[in-house]
Amino acid sequence: MPIERGEPDVVTCESLRAKVSVLRHKKSGRKLLQMDHSFKLNIVSTSENEQCERTEIERLCGGTPEVLSILSGSIVKRQLRDGPARYSSGSYKELDVAGLVSGGKARVIAAAEVARFFPNVTILANGYTYANAPPDAQIVKEELRRYGASTHHVLLQKKSYSTFTELVELVKLVAEYKWRHLAIMTNCFQIPRAQELLKHIDSLHDPYGVSQDPDFRAALPTFVELAPRVVFVSAEAVLPWRSGRYQKIIRQAKGRPEWRERDAREARGLKQLQEGTYWNGMERKKKEPFRL
Known about the structure:
The chain is α/β, with parallel strands linked by helices. Helices cover 48% and strands 13% of the residues. Helix 4 (136-146) links the parallel strand 5 and strand 6 (154-157). Helix 3 crosses helix 8 (235-242) and helix 5 (163-177) crosses helix 7 (214-226). It is globular.
């Protein structure tokens, strides 16, 4: 099973984006002819930028995926002054169920941008983290619509509450639908650990016993036989294509101590997976519902 990470071509795409920016902000001349010429350049440059983005998105996804799965970053609750509470994916300034920086909102926006170029892709919205809140998957579907994506092909997966359980459910869905090419959208800090989790998905033993789920164990042989191509896509590689303002937002987020803590925790988890010590020493226990 090929597991990949899509990486942005910084030199090519940044140089073209800079060229487009120059053309877009080119000062018009005193003559009407010059203004008309500048306007025509704008049209051409916009077309070039769109084509460059399409090329880059296809490269990040390894071509045209059948499925775009959005890993959940947990949801957050906002109590409005008047009316019911509002739930949404967490931003770079908010924390997930593990108390670490979320970035879930960035994943949804980036997925909506990717979906512009793949109108027939099945979008897999994942998660049901908190017992006293709506499913993450349902919130993500609503946000996708808000960010301009069609929700006609959105599939809701409401059983997972962690990265590991999301991948367990993904294995079951791949076996059911016979998917062969998947793109998984998440934040750059999570990709290495998520890749390693998927690589060892058949041999890990989690403390809640999810790894022994009969449906999961039954799906594994089909998943291995299908050997789907799985490409992890960084939301931070996609967002600047949607709007240049995200470059500053991402830069500021990466400079916060919460981001560095998340990076460090992810690195420790990756090292444990590589050494075969992930979940070592943890006794089997019953999962208690998370509450928001």
